[in-house]
């Protein structure tokens, strides 16, 4: 795959990259859009609640399997064919989802959607380095891709709520058709042309792909069920054990299909570690806000989307400034500032109560939104900037799957905190009602005079919703605290990484490469 930015003019190059970004945006958006309408789909297709959870889980598993395979698929089909084929498949699967008649066919289409969507995500990050020279264009492309990757789950609840309220659930999938077809045509006409590499299929270690699929599937199923079954239950530990065994077996294969040996590059390895931490904190924070607004404040999807849109707007406004700073500041220093600010933004949300809403959530979101660009742009650059172009697809896949795994673990952790701690906090509030009514009334957001006695069954039943909301809010505060602490893990990672050439300010990096200097990566 000998493709680089010199082979096509500037305008087609950007048009092709924008088409890739549209595909990635659709793939990520589809997760959150569908979440808002799961109860509606469940009722329409007469699907049980337990089965409905697999509608999302199957998508995420298929997506996670596809992401690290993107480099291999690019070598076989070329970037242009892979993008057009994957997005066409995603669009076709979206139509299939819209016209599903039951659980089995909906699940099948969601798996196809997830796999094709998973390919579209690392294609964008590969395109950054395949299509653009090092410098301002690469920084703009990196920020654009990173911004859309974060914006999609932010606007997802709002878009899903609006479509569900004004149209039918089918439009959650049908909205992909028109932009999907347009992006396929644009991408196919503008992305670099490449030869078919079917020869790679002859020597491919297919068994290593099976082991990778088993490892990721087992890990995600274990993480899905850990909050409800217990992290130390035999069932969950069995899935984790299967994931570990499959991973080790895959690594020990002589020539595995996925180039995990690229992690011997220190810059890529530490970049993936930061990607993992970002995924853990970012995806979990995006998950926590709708949970709080839905279960504590009682907001609908459209209201939730309007509140959470602040993060995306803050990122959009700050991104051009971060691009300019990145040209003159060491990427490790900028990453440290970003993760530090992100941790502060997470800690700012640890004092929420049943009355917390848009105003109190505004500044924490602003801080996190400004920080996100600094957490995305520098790690992508120093992790992938000096990877050989013929291996950039493989490296991008590893980088992105690290973020996805981090996100899955983060969501499982905060879900566990909420699931296990909320009932304990409800009991603690009930105890406070007897020992310190003023404190209990403040937590519940009601006058002391309205508190019933603990043995007043009818009165306690009347405030049961308030009790549950207060317990969930308290548990969510602990989850915010956990995420803030996890975000600080970025600092030892950056310290241990030490100096890498790709972390130099862009101006110095370009000069270093021109001078032919080398640095141990």
How would you describe what is shown here?
The protein is an all-alpha fold and 521 residues long. It has four domains: 1-204, Up-down Bundle (Growth Hormone, Chain: A); 209-256; 262-419 and 479-521, Up-down Bundle (Growth Hormone, Chain: A), CATH 1.20.1250.20; 423-471, no CATH class. It contains 22 helices and no strands. Helix 15 (331-347) runs antiparallel to helix 20. It is globular. It starts with 9 loop residues before the first helix and ends in a 7-residue tail after the last helix. Residues 517-521 have low confidence and may be disordered.
**What is the percentage of strand-forming residues?**
under 5%
Q: What is the CATH homology-level superfamily of the largest domain?
A: MFS general substrate transporter like domains
Describe the global form: globular
User: Could you tell me how far the N terminus lies from the C terminus, measured between alpha carbons in angstroms?
Assistant: 23 Å
Rg of Cα set: 24 Å
- Low-pLDDT parts are 517-521
Largest sheet: none
As a percent range, the share of helical residues equals over 70%
Number of strands: 0
Structural class: mainly alpha
CATH architecture of the largest domain: Up-down Bundle
Find the CATH topology of the largest domain: Growth Hormone, Chain: A
- The mean pLDDT is 88
Number of helices: 22
What count of structural domains?
4
Provide the succession of SSEs: HHHHHHHHHHHHHHHHHHHHHH
